[in-house]
Amino acid sequence: MSRRFTAGAVATATALALLGAVPAGPAMAAPDASADSTEFTVVAEEGTSTVAAVAAIEAAGGTVVDSTASVGMFQVVSDQADFAARVAEAAELLGAAEKRAIGYAPRARFDAVEQEHRIVGGRSAGAAGARGTAMDPLDTKLWGLTMMRADQSRSVEPGDRRVSVGVLDTGIDGQHPDLAANFSYSLSRNFAPDIEDIDGPCEVAGCLDPVDRDDSGHGTHVAGTIAAAADGFGLSGVAPKVTLVALKGGQDSGYFFLDSVVNALVYAGDAGLDVVNMSFYVDPWLYNCLNNPADSAEEQASQRATIVAMNRALRYAHRRDVTLIGSLGNNHEDLGAPRDDASSPNYGGTPRLRPIDNATCWDLPVEGPHVIGVSALGPSKAKADYSNYGTEQISVAAPGGWFRDGFGTPTHRTYDNTILSAYPLHVLQEEGAVDADGNIVPGAEAFVAKECTSAGVCAYYTYLQGTSMASPHVSGVAALIVSKYGKPDRRRGGLTMDPNKVEAQLYRTAAKQACPEPRLVSYANEGRSPEWDAYCVGGSGFNGFYGFGIVDAYAAVTTPMRR
Question: Quick one: fold of 116-558?
Answer without folding.
Answer: Rossmann fold (3.40.50)
